[in-house]
Amino acid sequence: MFALRPDRFRPASAAGGAGQRRGTPDARTGPTATVEVFVDGIPVRVPEGASAAAAVLLAGSPLIRETPVTGAPRLPYCLMGVCFDCLAEIDGIANRQACMVPAVPGMRIAPQRGARVAFRS
Amino acid sequence: MSCDLAIIGAGPAGMAAAVEAVDLGLSVAVIDENPAPGGQIFRGLEGAAGDAALGADYAAGLPLLRAFRALRIGYRPATTLWHLEPEEGVLSLLAAGTTSELTAGRVLLATGAQERPVPIPGWTLPGVMTAGAAQILLKTAGAVPKGRTVLAGQGPLLWLLAAQLARAGAPPALILETRPKGRLAEALRAGGLLAGAPLLAKGLALLAKTRRIPRLRAVTGLHAEGTGHVRRVLWDGGATECDTLLLHEGVVPATHIPLALGLEHDWDEAQRCWRPRVDAYGASSHPRVAVAGDGAGIGGWQAAVAAGRLAALDAARRVGRLTEAGFARRAGPLLATRRAALALRPFLDALYAPPGWVLAPPEDATLVCRCEEVTAGQVRAAARLGATGPNQLKAYCRAGMGPCQGRMCGATVAALIAEARGTTPEAVGTLRPRAPYKPLTVAELARTG
Hints:
The complex is a heterodimer of chains A (121) and B (449).
Chain A: E1 2-4, E2 20-22, E3 33-39, E4 42-47, H1 52-58, E5 65-66, E6 73-74, E7 87-90, E8 93-97, E9 108-113
Parallel strand pairs in A: 3-9, 5-9
Antiparallel strand pairs in A: 2-3, 3-4, 5-6, 7-8, 7-9
Chain B: E1 2-8, H1 12-23, E2 28-31, H2 45-48, H3 56-59, H4 62-69, E3 74-76, E4 79-85, E5 90-95, E6 98-109, E7 113-115, E8 128-130, H5 131-141, E9 143-145, E10 149-154, H6 156-167, E11 174-177, H7 183-190, H8 197-209, E12 215-216, E13 223-225, E14 232-235, E15 238-241, E16 244-249, E17 251-253, H9 256-260, E18 265-268, E19 273-276, E20 289-291, H10 301-318, H11 324-342, H12 345-351, H13 356-359, E21 367-369, E22 374-375, H14 376-385, H15 410-421, H16 425-428, H17 442-446
Parallel strand pairs in B: 1-2, 1-6, 2-3, 6-20, 8-16, 10-11, 10-16, 11-12
Antiparallel strand pairs in B: 4-5, 5-6, 7-17, 13-14, 14-15, 18-19, 21-22
Helix pairs in contact in B: 1-4, 1-10, 5-6, 6-8, 7-12, 10-11, 14-15
Pfam families (chain A): Fer2_4
InterPro entries (chain A): 2Fe-2S-bd_N, 2Fe-2S_ferredoxin-like_sf
Region (Disordered) (chain A): 11-31
């Protein structure tokens, strides 16, 4: 589980729609703008510039994917584009490396469950 | 589109090479997978340079980053190189779901490093991550682990992260240091302390900052346990509860693209990894391709900056933008800078050499291929049946055939085969990756820009 640093970000409020919001500006700790994304349908505010994988960790999700071989749950491991354990369905596109995709307002991130379904009948 | 020099990666080596090459009048394109320049070490720097938790060394990258941003070049962030045809210098790129091509007279691979895999039982559990991953969350998302965090492993990044987490208000509850007994004596014999004194002083200051964090030394038998999420970390003689376990055993060159290109590589016994064979200026075994920075052997960002600039000088010399005399005049000080930046490496390499149980996990049940869920025991069994290397192994099991294409398991698989067959990782060799270097969809392939 990960949380935004309290010294850098004001606690997120549940109100407000997708878009950007600026927290208490503080020259010592860098920008505090956040964007709202949806992790498995639940809204979560994440800092501007954070990845979709970071959003899943900040949302406290138990998993970002289930493996195709045994269905085991996984969360991001390396966050630098190497391990492919953060594969997720982002805005309807399966098997995206969530750590390489910046979070943008309104983005929808859902777990990748097993292998991609190529055709749905 | 064509250019004199295409640089892959906008970390320290890539940014420095671009600045130098533009200064020498070359047309330059920089391709980088990340949305902003900086590589891993200076990741998120433009947004977080003022963050006191990250420390002064992080902000030290700002001048280079600003010089890079001021260049009028074809800088393509959020762009993946998925194929390189070196004979004609054709790069196949993917950005925003669309493919495109770029032709370059010379290609500089500045793709940096990746963290060495730490295949312990339970390392695939949610909540187990690399130290680098936690640092990226700190840099780019201002996020820290919640609950009880344990750091396990060794190396400069582990200590740096411990200090950064402490300053960010989330100190680790425990550090499990895996450095075996006796390594300090070996490291002292390796030398470099005098020439590397400034770096050593920084390292010791860092250690001092983390001295309040409880730690155990020479830990062995590390494993993670939990149902659906890590709950406990165990080692020989102890165990503790945890919510997050961060692993780190140093970094190794990211050799995926150099290996796919078929560049000559050498086994680096000191760093227990492969590195592309390059000359003093980064020229590889292919006449069009150079490699600079940590991707050519781990040396840290200051050595990478010098290496990137040297590779740019070499590129300019090759197209007649720089005379031999001008080249020698500019290269001399850079070679000296790099030598100084590398002075402490023999000491660090000996001090933080990964223990054998990290390189080749002893327990058969341990997963080594995270993608295809292949265990150490399955690899050993295949090696005994006749698999002579990681490529031959693909006839027996799917290790290295998942989406990461062996980036995570390649080194472990080779070490296990070497152990089972009574030979060395050097003799066993490497995986030979193929394009696409990262998976892309047929739709992306069809959409050309």
